């Protein structure tokens, strides 16, 4: 007895140690899972957070002008080592950060003086100077970089892109007191004239002599007598098709693509009770900024409304004091507004953010200009030239830009749009996440519509009605489907299934109706058979008899598809859907995704739901049957209620799988970020968007961080959804555990 008690005690101690080890391992494993989730959460948050920080200004240097002459233009060298100033005296002053300033003279004729100046928008460092002898001099600062003794040295100089000879615009030698110009690689347009005379439009364009390979500049002139006089400022659009005239407290938009017949397209009025103080074109030249003395800055751009392209004021920015100077970035939609008391504010139009403010001395901001990369700007305030560095890496992102409708340039109305890249450097990025979230939910819902009825109904039948022999074949077969790589499913869906659906669309739609009816009819006919047949050995495999019947039904529906298409859709199903029904049709669409992704989700839902139904205690089933309930009553009132937590978990697991699916959506849709519930159109999901665009995004760029934000949104969404689903599952379990 003592030996037996000792052995029992040792065995108990041994089990106790095993229990402790198992408990410790489970606790550590579960804790590590939670730690991993927290690390993912905080890392995504760490990458995303910098996007929502504002900009920062840092003063680089301040210098006194080298001469008292009036400023014609300010500019900044690309590396911010130099700032420069064109003066009324015909000199260009270069201000270096180390304090070594210098001045260079322009190649001007003796006795001539500068009476006007104008900058090009496409090449903002190009400056045209109007002289009092009727000539125009076009110059450009150039900064050569050399490395003497391995030290980077920047040397400024002046160049003349159209040659050192000046452009003799006025044959009578009238002073060029009003001037605006725009230039590109092939043409140059100038609008000029005296202060009291009509304006003239002069165009230069380059022609290549194929014999000598020399470029010859040709010229033509047009008198713009219809244009008003007394303008305060003029601007030309970079495409050299529109002229903006600021006069009499309004901005007139003239179409000059037919120079001999200029047309007044539109008049942009000042705000009620305010006066216009400055105008400027933004990057891309699709938008015009208009500043007012009440501190308001309006953004105007063209959009087609009611079949006509007109300028509309899309948004306003509020500055605290009267605006005196506007300067826009070269490639992004940012701009600086300076006021009469030395205040500067940095804004971004698309995100509608006020990014940074700085207060200089109380002197008026006369002029401002951005560095080419947007990482610095130079201003003239009072009797000082000041250069600032700008730390502004992510101005395009705001809550409104991500989640609200935004009125983008050229669009007829505010909309949700995702378009992160383009071939143009001055492209306006569109980072709305709504199309991606919508596409994710759309793909998941269509997949669930296809998968849930088949998987849940199949699981219930397999667990409750099917014979053990057939169940032993069916359940492993369905579970093996889960091992099929989704990239293969996506490949087959995109290249094989999508064309078949397009070619046999009537048959596919007919199949969705006929197949359930055939199954119901088969079940009815089976119960009408004599008992000696239905209860024979063959009856144990009755489900397998459906396979040839369903295959024949599918073949028959697809076989009659051409006939249905000819009779009902005039022989062109896609054209009928598009033209007659007004429903857009893409070959790779939500129907194809629903079928392919539903096929991938079915094994997950089926396996969990089948286990839940099969695991219902047998005494509940036998007790219900013993009390006289039918199999159907037992199923609906006992089995399904008891198994409901497991079935709900199965559906939620399938939905989570569908939300996070990447390859099927990537390959079986057009991957277009649309917000349409149309089953015949595609979509773009959060996961597919990350897979497509992450390889081409620059590290730490706004695009890169926005993609991490989409991952963060997907992570948070699935976490919240799964937590809510678990809460519902536990509630169902508590409610029906007493059965």
Automatic annotation (TrEMBL):
Membrane-protein topology: Multi-pass membrane protein
CDD domains in UniProt: TM_PBP2
UniProt keyword annotation of Transmembrane helix present: yes
Subcellular location(s) of the protein: Cell membrane
One GO CC term, this protein: plasma membrane
BP GO annotations: transmembrane transport
Sequence ranges assigned to domain ABC transmembrane type-1 in this UniProt record: 437-725
Keywords: Membrane, Transmembrane, Transmembrane helix, Transport
InterPro entries, alphabetized: MetI-like (IPR000515), MetI-like_sf (IPR035906), WD40/YVTN_repeat-like_dom_sf (IPR015943), WD40_repeat_dom_sf (IPR036322)
Database matches in SUPFAM superfamilies: MetI-like, WD40 repeat-like
Keyword flag Glycoprotein: no
A Pfam family per the record: BPD_transp_1
Transmembrane domains' residue ranges: 21-46, 443-466, 478-498, 504-525, 545-564, 590-609, 638-659, 704-725
Assigned protein family: Belongs to the binding-protein-dependent transport system permease family.
Name of the molecule in the record: Phosphate transport system permease protein
Annotated source species: Ferrimonas marina
Lineage: Bacteria, Pseudomonadati, Pseudomonadota, Gammaproteobacteria, Alteromonadales
């Amino acid at each position: 007895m003592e030996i037996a008690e000792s052995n029992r005690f040792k065995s108990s101690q041994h089990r106790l140690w095993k229990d402790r080890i198992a408990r410790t391992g489970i606790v550590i494993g579960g804790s590590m899972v939670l730690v991993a989730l927290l690390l993912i959460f905080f890392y995504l948050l760490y990458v995303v957070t910098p996007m929502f920080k504002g900009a920062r200004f840092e003063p680089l240097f301040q210098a006194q002008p080298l001469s008292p002459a009036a400023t014609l233009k300010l500019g900044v060298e690309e590396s911010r080592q130099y700032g420069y100033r064109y003066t009324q005296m015909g000199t260009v002053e270069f201000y270096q950060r180390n304090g070594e300033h210098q001045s260079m003279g322009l190649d001007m004729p003796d006795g001539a003086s500068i009476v006007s100046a104008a900058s090009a928008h496409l090449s903002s460092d190009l400056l045209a100077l109007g002289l009092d002898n009727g000539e125009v001099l076009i110059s450009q600062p150039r900064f050569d970089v050399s490395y003497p003794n391995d030290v980077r040295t920047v040397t400024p100089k002046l160049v003349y892109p159209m040659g050192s000879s000046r452009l003799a615009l006025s044959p009578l030698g009238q002073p060029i007191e009003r001037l605006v110009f725009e230039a590109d690689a092939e043409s140059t347009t100038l609008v000029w004239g005296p202060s009291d005379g009509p304006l003239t439009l002069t165009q230069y364009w380059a022609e290549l002599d194929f014999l000598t390979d020399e470029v010859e500049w040709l010229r033509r002139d047009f008198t713009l007598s219809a244009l008003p006089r007394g303008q305060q400022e003029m601007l030309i659009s970079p495409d050299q098709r529109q002229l903006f005239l600021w006069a009499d407290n309004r901005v007139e938009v003239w179409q000059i693509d037919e120079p001999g017949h200029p047309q007044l397209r539109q008049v942009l009025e000042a705000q009620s009770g305010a006066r216009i103080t400055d105008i400027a074109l933004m990057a891309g030249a699709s938008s015009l900024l208009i500043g007012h003395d009440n501190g308001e800055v309006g953004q105007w751009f063209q959009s087609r409304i009611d079949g006509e392209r007109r300028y509309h004021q899309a948004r306003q920015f509020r500055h605290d004091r009267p605006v005196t100077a506007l300067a826009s970035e070269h490639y992004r939609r940012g701009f600086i507004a300076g006021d009469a008391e030395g205040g500067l504010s940095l804004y971004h139009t698309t995100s509608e953010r006020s990014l940074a403010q700085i207060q200089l001395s109380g002197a008026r901001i006369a002029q401002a200009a951005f560095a080419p990369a947007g990482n610095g700007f130079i201003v003239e305030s009072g009797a000082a030239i000041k250069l600032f560095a700008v730390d502004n890496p992510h101005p395009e992102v705001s809550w409104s830009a991500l989640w609200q409708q935004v009125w983008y340039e050229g669009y007829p109305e505010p909309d949700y749009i995702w378009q992160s890249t383009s071939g143009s450097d001055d492209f306006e990025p569109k980072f709305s996440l709504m199309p991606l979230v919508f596409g994710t939910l759309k793909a998941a819902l269509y997949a669930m519509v296809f998968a849930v009825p088949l998987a849940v109904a199949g699981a219930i039948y397999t667990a409750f009605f099917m014979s053990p022999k057939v169940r032993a074949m069916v359940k492993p077969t369905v579970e093996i489907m889960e091992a099929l790589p989704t990239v293969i499913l996506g490949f087959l869906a995109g290249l094989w299934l999508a064309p078949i659906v397009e070619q046999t669309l009537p048959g596919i739609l007919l199949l969705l109706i006929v197949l359930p009816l055939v199954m119901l009819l088969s079940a009815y006919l089976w119960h009408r058979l004599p008992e000696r047949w239905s209860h024979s050995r063959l009856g144990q495999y009755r489900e397998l008899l459906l396979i040839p019947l369903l295959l024949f039904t599918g073949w028959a529906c697809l076989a009659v598809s051409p006939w249905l298409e000819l009779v009902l859709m005039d022989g062109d199903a896609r054209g009928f859907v598009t033209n007659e029904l007004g429903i857009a049709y893409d070959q790779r669409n939500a129907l194809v995704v629903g079928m392919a992704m539903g096929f991938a989700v079915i094994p997950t839902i089926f396996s969990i739901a089948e286990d839940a139904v099969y695991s219902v205690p047998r005494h509940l089933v036998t007790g219900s049957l013993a009390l006289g309930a039918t199999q159907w009553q037992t199923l609906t009132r006992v089995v399904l209620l008891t198994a409901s937590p497991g079935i709900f978990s199965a559906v939620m697991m399938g939905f989570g799988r569908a939300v996070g699916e990447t390859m099927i959506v990537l390959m079986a849709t057009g991957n277009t970020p649309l917000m349409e519930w149309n089953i015949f159109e595609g979509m773009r999901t959060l996961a597919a968007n990350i897979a497509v665009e992450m390889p081409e995004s620059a590290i730490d760029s706004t695009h890169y961080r926005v993609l991490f934000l989409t991952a963060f949104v997907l992570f948070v969404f699935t976490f919240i959804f799964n937590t809510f689903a678990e809460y519902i599952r536990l509630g169902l379990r508590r409610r029906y555990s007493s059965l």
